[in-house]
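ESCALATION

Customer reports they have been waiting on this structure for their group meeting. Please prioritize. Original submission:
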Amino acid sequence: MSLDKILSISGKPGLYELKAQTRSGFVAEALADGKKLSVSIRHNVSILSEIAIYTFTEEVPLRDIFRKIQEKEEGGQAINHKESKNKLEAYFSEVLPDYDEDRVYVSDMKKVIQWYNILQAKGITDFEEPEEVASEEEE
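Update from on-call: job pushed to the front of the queue and completed.
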C-alpha cells in the first residue's frame, strides 16, 4: 500500500486508508482498528504523500523522512511520540538535521513519529516514490 491511499483526518486520531469515494466524500478505514468511517468533503483531510516538512533549503516529502527514520531504526519502531520536547527535537535533528526550527513545531514532530510508528506496526514500510508510468504522446 502506498502513501497515496493513507490519510490523516483533522479531529480524528490515527491514520486511515482511503477505501472508496462517494458523492458526498469518501469512506476511510482506520489503520488502528479497521473501523470504517464516512468522511464528508467538509473535513480537513491530508494525504500523506502530499505532506512535506520545511528545511532551510527545501521542503522534504514525508516519504523521505519516513525512509530516514526507517534507516536510523533499521526497520524498527521510532521513539515514542510522547517523549519530552528535548528528546523529540534531538531525535528529529538526527533524522532531518536542517529542518527549519521556526516552521516545524514539536507537534509536527510528534505527528511524523506517531505516523511512522503506526505505518511500521501495520507493515506499511515501502516509502519509495511510486514509479510513474511513462505514456507515449502521439502526434
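Sent to customer with the following note: The chain has a mean pLDDT of 90.
Escalation resolved.
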